[in-house]
Amino acid sequence: MRRPSAFGVGLTVLALFCVAALLGPAIAPYGLHEQVGGVFQPPSWSHPLGTDDAGRDVLSLCIGGARVSMVVAVAASFVAIAIGASIGVIAGYSGGLVDGVLMRITDYFLVVPALPLMIVISTVWGPSLWHVVLVIGALLWTPSARVLRAEVLTVRERSYVLRVRAMGASRTRIIVHHVLPQVRALIAANCVLTISVAIFFESALAFLGLESADTVSWGTMIADAFRRAAASSGAWWAFVPPGICIAIVVLACNLVGSAVEDRAGTRLRAPRLSRTGFAVADRTAGEDA
Amino acid sequence: MRRAAAAVLAIVCLVAAGCGGGDNSSSSSSSSGGQLRIGDASSKIDSLNPLVGSNLFALTSYRMLYPYLLQYDAAGQIVGDFAKSYAVSKDRKTWTLTTYDGARWSDGKPLTADDVAWTYQTLLKYQDGATAGFAPALGGIASVTAPSPTRVVVRYAAPVSTAAYGMANVPVLPRHVWARYATGSGAQLRTFANLDPVTAGAFSLEKYTPNALALFSRNEGFYGPKPKLASFGFQFFTSNDAMVTALKSNQIDAAYEVPPTVMPTLKSTAGIRVETHPGTDTVLLGINSNKQTSHPELLNPAVRDAIDMAIDRERIVETVSLGTGVVGGSIVPPTLTPWHDPGVTAPSTDVAAANRLLDDAGYRRGSGGIRVADGHPMQYDVLFAQGVTGAPRVIELIAEDLKQIGIELRLRGSDAASYLQAVTADDYKRFAFSVDDYAPPLDPTLMLALPLCGQLGGINESGYCEKEYDAMFAKQATEEGDARVATVRAMQQKIADDKPLLPIYTAGVINAYRDAVRDVPATPLIINYESKQWLTQATVDG
Prior knowledge:
The complex is a heterodimer of chains A (289) and B (542).
Chain A lengths: L1 H22 L34 H37 L1 H16 L2 H12 L3 H11 L2 H15 L2 H8 L4 H37 L10 H10 L2 H4 L6 H30 L5 H14 L1
Helix pairs in contact in A: 1-2, 1-11, 2-3, 2-5, 2-6, 2-8, 3-6, 4-5, 5-8, 6-8, 8-9, 8-11, 9-11, 11-12
Chain B lengths: L1 H16 L17 E6 L15 H10 L4 E3 L5 E3 L2 E6 L5 E6 L13 H13 L9 H4 L2 E8 L2 E6 L6 H5 L7 H4 L8 H5 L11 E7 L3 E6 L12 E6 L3 H9 L5 E3 L6 H5 L4 E16 L13 H10 L2 H8 L5 E2 L23 H10 L11 E2 L2 E2 L1 E7 L7 H11 L4 E7 L1 H13 L4 E6 L6 H5 L17 H10 L4 H18 L2 E14 L2 E2 L14 H5 L1 E2 L2
Parallel strand pairs in B: 1-10, 1-11, 16-17, 16-18
Antiparallel strand pairs in B: 2-3, 4-5, 5-7, 6-7, 8-9, 9-10, 11-19, 12-18, 12-19, 13-19, 14-15, 20-21
């Protein structure tokens, strides 16, 4: 009962933010670069979340900022999953030398501290949204690669895969038609979970000024508030709303991600685990909820 | 181990927390006069070596630690420091300075005119290398000698208008400590960390933690008037919020470079006063003025006039500095009297007139309302360093204003080094717009030097190079009094006409003090690094 509802809530919230990101300027009450009032005006009827340090409407900025934050996070997560899933599936299915080489590369990336490396790369490449997407994507793929490899290792040994192989199907065909469908749900779950990490990194990079200065995202909103000492000025409305937006999206991603993962886990385990396996799956799900 | 830790704690308490909660009575007798703890979140001491450091607080530290021949007084006049008095020959080529007798360095060795002569000679000797930073201050000096322990004679090859300013900005170093580094290329003069400096100024260095704090105590053997303060310290914060909290909770006595947005809350805090006054820190919009530019339309005077007219400087001052700054007009800011020319002002904002100018010049609007010049849309990158005063807000506002006249700017921020590299890249062919800020000292030379041909590849951030302007610069460098003022003002007019650099606004100085702090005179320099006097006069009530 509870698990589907968590999934539903998460999905609804994500859908809402996606709509905000897509419609953005159309539903925002004011323009993103429009000066509508004084500096750090407290919330009022005309500006429900007050104004920021340039006299811009914070509600409009939150809606407009959703576009950059969400697009960057989703795009970066796709990049990460594309790399992670390819490496994970190929390594898991091939085994042997290929597995060894790919996993050592993964291990290497796994121990690299992501944020400092992102800062270095962003500085060298220069501030740009697509750089941020690539940087985050290129450094967040390792967990997916590890998880997927582990899953593919079990799928590979299943009898139907062995039978298909015995019938002479090519490796590509087996991976695409017989392995990938089995791990599809896991990929989706990892993708959503990666979004929640990516949105954090996007905000961090924006906060550090490594995003283009004329973009508005939740991270740059917090950075601007910090730079002009909003906290000391009592202007909580300049940094709390974007912070809450980030928190909500991360929470929603985690709800959806773990729900999908749980379902995937159940289905994957079903064919090869005994009734105890079902019990185990159900129990973990119960603890989760 | 334990004792060491306790000692460190005690020192930290002394600076950071004021542990006693404002109760200074428990301090020892030598601390009469109180302690002034100054916080800042925007600057640091970049080095203790006076031949290396350049930050505001580094310069202030050198000023308090080392003797200088001359210094500025509260009225902005140049007066004596280690030189009690001085006489200038009629041809303005020979300066004879009489220094204090019986002065001593902190290690007990005598401080005499010989130290002065040695320091100047050494800085001159290495002015093409290790001590190049002092070359402008020493310009035109032919020789420096010390005929007696209390007499320094400085001879110039020709009259130099900034002679006194130069002597007010060269620290005197102890020969017996520094002589061993003045060998070979002189590189060791710069690599010497000077962490335990031998000094002779009004204060001695008590404790120094890089990037965090510096503690100074009164030098009882100081040759000049004794400071009233027993000690003072700088504490450097990593965020403005932390600094403001420290001020409110009485951990520091003064917060410097307070962001304008915090003023209203600080003003309403009991026991704290906020002082704002005009500063020198001026934000400049550079337009590529180089003959080789790949944006020839930007050389068109009509385009420059239109840009100048479109920028709403009043709005920028209101939004970015909350009214504490002043709109820019001349590259020499108003606080640099008598050099600033009040007659050189920016045109009043008139978007309609600016649009007419561009229409008449034939720049038609294309897709998205962006004008077209020579077949390409008028879209440009504006380069700036992240640390520029008011950035990125001030640049965003400029971009909005220019959008109204069909010119689109894309903001390209970077660190200071990459910024300069990008501006000067390809001999100024590529860049279109640059934004930087300069906080000049009380002499106009720095601001006037910005558009010089000789500074191409250096601090010239517009690519401007005009022989006529350079000749005026050379002329003012030898003039004195009203003659120099007239030339300096003509130069400001020339820059306002040619518009290589558009002064946007000059930021105000906003410093906050606890009410216990008294007698710190206002200075446009944020913290007065040109004088020992202010810190020797300041007091803090217990």
